[in-house]
Every structure is written in C-alpha cells, then in structure tokens.
C-alpha cells in the first residue's frame, strides 16, 4: 500500500477508536491522552486539503556595475536612483541665563 493510503486508513481507524472511547469510562490520564489525540486528529483533518500557504521570495544577485542588468528576467539599462537633498535645518535657539538656571539640578 502507498504511504498516503496507509495514513488515511490509520487516521480513519483512530477516529473510530476515539468514538468508541467516548462511550467508555476512562481514567484521568486516559481522558487527557484521548483529548490530545482528538485535538491532533481534528487539527490534521481541518488542515488537510485546505489551501496551502506559500512564501514567494525574490533572489537578488549583486554584481559589478553593468549596463545590461536584468529586470524581471529581461535586459535593461541601469538607472541610478535620484539623489534628494536634505531639508535645511532651523537655526539653533538662543538660551538665556534664566533658562539655564531653571535647567540646573542641584
């Protein structure tokens, strides 16, 4: 038998066994283990067949400056990023002696 068929059968039998245990009187430890198995089976069953999540990653290769760099797999010319100048800073504020006295901690 193929592995996925064996796994499907195992999960189906586990589900049936857990249903049988629902009708039995179990010890505390057995009840906890049954609960854990039920949760695992439910988690696996709800995620099985659902849409899988995929991560898309871009790969960047850094090489010497070349005019024939690739953009989306096609040859393209290198276009430098425009440089922006920084904004002018405001002039420093003058601080009076009174303000300096207020700022001192003795």
From TrEMBL:
<dbReference type="GO" id="GO:0045893">
    <property type="term" value="P:positive regulation of DNA-templated transcription"/>
</dbReference>
<dbReference type="GO" id="GO:0007346">
    <property type="term" value="P:regulation of mitotic cell cycle"/>
</dbReference>
<keyword id="KW-0175">Coiled coil</keyword>
<keyword id="KW-0677">Repeat</keyword>
<dbReference type="GO" id="GO:0006954">
    <property type="term" value="P:inflammatory response"/>
</dbReference>
<dbReference type="GO" id="GO:0045742">
    <property type="term" value="P:positive regulation of epidermal growth factor receptor signaling pathway"/>
</dbReference>
<dbReference type="GO" id="GO:0042169">
    <property type="term" value="F:SH2 domain binding"/>
</dbReference>
<dbReference type="InterPro" id="IPR030113">
    <property type="entry name" value="AFAP"/>
</dbReference>
<dbReference type="GO" id="GO:0005829">
    <property type="term" value="C:cytosol"/>
</dbReference>
<dbReference type="GO" id="GO:0032757">
    <property type="term" value="P:positive regulation of interleukin-8 production"/>
</dbReference>
<dbReference type="GO" id="GO:0032675">
    <property type="term" value="P:regulation of interleukin-6 production"/>
</dbReference>
<keyword id="KW-0963">Cytoplasm</keyword>
<dbReference type="GO" id="GO:0017124">
    <property type="term" value="F:SH3 domain binding"/>
</dbReference>
<protein>
    <submittedName>
        <fullName>Actin filament-associated protein 1-like 2</fullName>
    </submittedName>
</protein>
């Amino acid at each position: 038998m193929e592995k996925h068929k064996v796994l499907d059968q195992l999960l189906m039998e586990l589900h049936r066994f857990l249903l049988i245990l629902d009708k039995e009187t179990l010890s505390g430890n057995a009840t906890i283990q049954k609960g854990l198995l039920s949760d695992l089976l439910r988690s696996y069953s709800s995620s099985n067949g659902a849409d899988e999540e995929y991560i898309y990653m871009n790969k960047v290769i850094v090489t010497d400056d070349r005019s024939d760099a690739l953009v989306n797999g096609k040859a393209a010319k290198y276009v430098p990023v425009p440089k922006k100048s920084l904004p002018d800073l405001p002039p420093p504020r003058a601080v009076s002696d009174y303000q300096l006295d207020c700022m001192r901690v003795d």
